[in-house]
Design goal:
Strand 4, helix 2 and strand 5 form a beta-alpha-beta unit. The chain has 349 residues and is α/β, with parallel strands linked by helices. It is globular and about 65 Å long. The longest helix has 18 residues. The strands form 5 sheets. Strands 3-4-5-8-9-10-13-14 form an 8-stranded parallel sheet. A 5-stranded antiparallel sheet has the order 15-2-18-17-16. Strands 1-19 form a two-stranded antiparallel ribbon. The chain is built from 9 helices and 19 strands.
Length: 349
């Protein structure tokens, strides 16, 4: 099989369709088109609860619902009754903070994960809310101490020199796991503190490891830049994600990425790269009311038949039982050996 790939990625599949992994959609309610499309994913994350009729419709199609939750803090303007009632000892800042992982124009208060209110009451409050709205789980955005405002993190260190932020946050996750024994817990970048976070979650989401912002626009990262390894897709996958995958094989890894211009080929590129590294992907889409993008999400690759074959610093491919994923960021022809003369249908470029 001869492939000519010029700065692109090929995703090939057999006709059988699989379900997508995790989708994100932060506008509610869903349109009829959106409802049908998102029902093809195992999990849909929303920022606010969907109407109960739409929750029931998605459940009927086998899709679970997860509700957005800022993991380390809350905004004053969006505070729940439980959050407003927290004592000062359960918070790391007496005065509101702005910026860092939070918005620059909104006041935020950061949880003290070592407080009994956080370790127990927060888990119960979240579980009760999910039950009330018919949701199955929660998506924790910006997890780990790296997402905590420096002023709040300094206060945590002053109060609790005997422990770490992530170790205490793990106590909360352990309680929540008991409350949601059959539910879904999703974290954002939990791999950064894998021993504390990943034992209690079902799915861990990375952000912008395949694409990245450059001068206000999202573009593809290079495959392997010898002068800037930490900006290279291959290096990031092998050194950030692969160790966590090996240590926590029961966790599903999903790569969330962003693009300024969406099209089938761009989505296919990102999905193919994720599949090569035993993960899945989603590209943030503000709306799909004008038509869906991303049939590649539902490609049934089957099990990998071999490891990733890197033919050069700018190319790689992997053969699966039902398909082929290949990446070529160079200008030379990439030849994929095909001794069995297998036919890969529905090629997307």
């Amino acid at each position: 099989m001869r492939l000519l790939l010029l700065m692109t990625v090929v995703l090939a599949q057999m006709p059988a369709e699989a379900r997508g992994a995790v989708a994100f959609h932060y506008k509610a309610p869903l349109t009829a088109t959106e409802l049908a499309w998102y029902s093809r994913f195992d999990v849909l994350v929303t920022h606010d609860p969907l109407p109960r009729a739409q929750v029931d419709a998605l459940h009927a199609k086998g899709t679970k619902l997860a509700l957005y939750e800022w993991s380390v803090a809350f905004y004053t303007s969006l505070a729940t009754p439980w959050q407003r009632g927290l004592p000062s000892t359960a918070l790391l800042n007496a005065d509101p903070l702005r910026g860092r992982s939070g918005a620059s124009d909104a006041d935020a208060f950061y949880f003290d994960p070592a407080s009994p209110q956080h370790a127990n009451e927060r888990a119960i409050a979240i579980a009760e809310k999910l039950h009330a709205i018919g949701y199955d789980g929660v998506f924790f955005d910006t997890t780990t101490h790296e997402s905590v405002h420096p002023d709040a993190l300094a206060e945590f260190a002053r109060r609790h020199p005997e422990t770490t932020y992530d170790a205490e946050f793990a106590r909360f996750l352990r309680t929540l796991r008991r409350e949601l024994s059959d539910g879904v817990i999703i974290t954002n970048q939990g791999f950064r503190a894998a021993p504390h976070i990943l034992p209690f979650v079902d799915i861990d989401v990375s952000e912008s490891l395949i694409t990245r912002p450059v001068q206000g626009r999202f573009v593809m990262r290079p495959w392997l830049d010898s002068s800037d390894a930490w900006n290279s897709i291959s290096y990031l996958m092998r050194n950030l994600i692969a160790p966590a995958q090996r240590a926590y094989p029961n966790v599903r890894f999903v790569h969330l990425n962003y693009l300024d211009t969406l099209d089938e080929a761009s989505v296919a590129r990102i999905v193919a790269i994720a599949r090569m590294y035993d993960a899945e992907a989603f590209v943030a889409q503000p709306s799909i009311s004008g038509g869906t993008l991303g049939e590649a999400y539902f490609a049934n690759f089957g099990a990998p038949r071999d490891r990733i074959e890197s033919t050069a610093k700018r190319t790689a491919y992997r053969v699966f039982a039902r398909g082929l994923a290949a990446a070529n960021f160079g200008d030379a022809t990439l030849f994929v050996p095909n001794p069995e003369r297998a036919t890969y249908e529905n090629v997307v470029t």
